[in-house]
């Protein structure tokens, strides 16, 4: 029994059959399961929050596909390290076997452009199969040339039941935990403090158990809260506070409180948070929570991201502060956000409805003979550039999806829509 290894490492799954969650990827009909069975593993990016099994899955893919496995961490590896591993991989497989080696790069979003560029040739020529793990959106953090050569797979956060099942497995399988009489009476504090991170959950659980001298250990919310508070770091960029503080920041802006927004911004900056991550969240908020109540908000947020990316720290903190204050003091509307949610739900419910004939394109003679585009009213040929006609499929005609917010700008939208669509949509 080696208790020098963390609990998460001691019970790390070694096969797909023991891998917890991510059924959409590794279940019986999962996309990765099928590829592993066929022995065809593409270069891929595993994207998901901390502690959902990205590293474990990469190891299992290599093991079950029986391929050589090399690993690098983007935190402490440079271009030379990448080239050294590629040279080793070429010698162990590459062009002379269908099972080319796997190179796993943890936190690939931390690689610079030049470091990512150094991977391109090896991936393109098939010397390696790249598996990258990231907690950040690959669209922003992985260069387009490399991203286009990889499949992106999204790993979902663990649910309560899965995390509780993980604790149960740990108590059944780990020799150290089996030597204790552990009574898990309450799990809420464990789950909350772990923030859905399985690795953190197991580390906290082991901390609680190892801190108790008695043979019978009763795990309660009070015990967990008391012990973990004594051992929690001030700001963990990849843990619970990362998500709690960005949540507080966003909700402060949504709630129109610039003072709280700037405070939480400062907490993230002082904690070493990635400033581009903050700027990206501001872009999302500008559309989701402000939208057409003030369309300039999205322009401001997008320009903020570009400026932060160009200037860097420490000056970019000023730009982030300006943007946060502007967004916090702007009128709010989530009408566009709600509209697309309703529209997507409607599509899921009704399926692929036919496009009405009169608004179909008719580029060929046959299409014209079939009635494509017939009876379409060209808006600019009518008074006020408007012609009353149906643009939705017959099955969902007259369905209102966009309801303007109650603010000065969107009230003008409502007046416009009322003048055109009062009878049809009830504006």
Textual characterization of the structure:
It is a single chain. It is globular, with a radius of gyration of 27 Å. Helices cover 52% and strands 7% of the residues. It starts with 6 loop residues before the first helix and ends with a helix. A five-stranded parallel β-sheet has the order 2-3-4-1-5, sandwiched between helices. The chain has a two-stranded parallel ribbon with strand order 6-7. The model has no long low-confidence stretch (mean pLDDT 88). With 427 residues, the chain is of the alpha/beta class. The protein has 21 helices and seven strands.
Strand-helix topology:
Elements: H1 7-10, H2 23-26, H3 31-38, E1 44-47, H4 54-64, E2 69-73, H5 79-92, E3 102-106, H6 113-124, E4 129-134, H7 138-141, H8 144-147, E5 151-154, H9 160-173, H10 175-178, E6 181-184, H11 188-194, H12 198-210, E7 216-219, H13 221-229, H14 240-254, H15 258-270, H16 275-290, H17 296-311, H18 316-328, H19 335-350, H20 365-369, H21 408-425
Parallel strand pairs: 1-4, 1-5, 2-3, 3-4, 6-7
Order of helices and strands: HHHEHEHEHEHHEHHEHHEHHHHHHHHH
| % residues in beta strands | 5-15%
Helix content: 40-55%
Structural classification: alpha/beta
| Number of separate strands | 7
The side-by-side strand order for the widest beta sheet comes to 2-3-4-1-5
Radius of gyration: 27 Å
Show unreliable segments: none
The mean pLDDT is 88
What summary fits the major beta sheet? 5 strands, parallel
Number of helices, where a helix is a run of at least 4 consecutive DSSP H or I residues:
21
Give the termini separation. Answer: 70 Å
Shape: globular
């Amino acid at each position: 029994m080696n208790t020098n290894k963390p609990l998460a490492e001691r019970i790390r799954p070694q096969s797909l059959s023991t891998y917890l969650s991510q059924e959409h990827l590794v279940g019986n009909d999962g996309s990765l399961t099928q590829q592993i069975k066929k022995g065809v593993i593409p270069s891929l990016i595993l994207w998901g929050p901390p502690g959902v099994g990205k590293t474990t899955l990469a190891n299992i893919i290599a093991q079950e596909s029986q391929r050589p496995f090399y690993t690098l961490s983007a935190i402490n590896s440079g271009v030379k390290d990448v080239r050294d591993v590629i040279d080793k991989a070429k010698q162990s497989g590459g062009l002379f076997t269908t099972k080319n080696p796997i190179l796993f790069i943890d936190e690939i979003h931390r690689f610079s452009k030049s470091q990512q560029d150094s991977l391109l040739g090896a991936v393109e020529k098939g010397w390696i199969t790249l598996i990258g793990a990231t907690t950040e959106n690959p669209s922003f953090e992985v260069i387009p040339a490399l991203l286009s050569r990889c499949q992106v797979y999204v790993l979902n956060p663990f649910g309560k039941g899965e995390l509780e099942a993980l604790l149960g497995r740990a108590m059944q399988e780990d020799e150290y935990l089996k030597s204790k009489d552990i009574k898990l009476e309450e799990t809420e504090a464990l789950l909350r403090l772990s923030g859905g991170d399985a690795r953190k959950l197991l580390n906290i659980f082991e901390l609680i158990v190892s801190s108790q001298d008695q043979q019978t250990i009763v795990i309660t919310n009070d015990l967990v809260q008391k012990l973990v508070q004594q051992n929690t770091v001030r700001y963990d960029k990849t843990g619970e506070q990362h998500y709690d503080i960005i949540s507080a920041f966003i909700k402060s802006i949504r709630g129109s409180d610039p003072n709280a927004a700037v405070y939480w911004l400062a907490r993230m900056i002082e904690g070493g948070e990635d400033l581009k991550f903050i700027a990206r969240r501001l872009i999302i908020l500008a559309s989701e929570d402000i939208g057409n109540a003030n369309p300039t908000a999205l322009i401001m947020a997008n320009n903020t991201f570009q400026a932060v990316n160009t200037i860097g720290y420490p000056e970019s903190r000023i730009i982030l502060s300006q943007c946060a204050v502007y967004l916090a003091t702007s009128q709010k509307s989530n009408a566009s956000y709600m509209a697309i949610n309703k529209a997507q739900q409607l599509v899921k419910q009704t399926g692929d409805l036919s496009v009405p004939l009169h608004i179909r394109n008719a580029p060929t003679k046959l299409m014209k003979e079939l009635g494509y585009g017939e009876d379409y009213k060209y808006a600019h040929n009518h008074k006020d550039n408007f012609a009353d006609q149906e643009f939705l499929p017959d099955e969902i005609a007259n369905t209102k999806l966009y309801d303007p917010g109650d603010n000065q700008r969107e009230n003008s939208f409502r007046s416009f829509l009322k003048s055109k669509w009062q009878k049809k949509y009830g504006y």
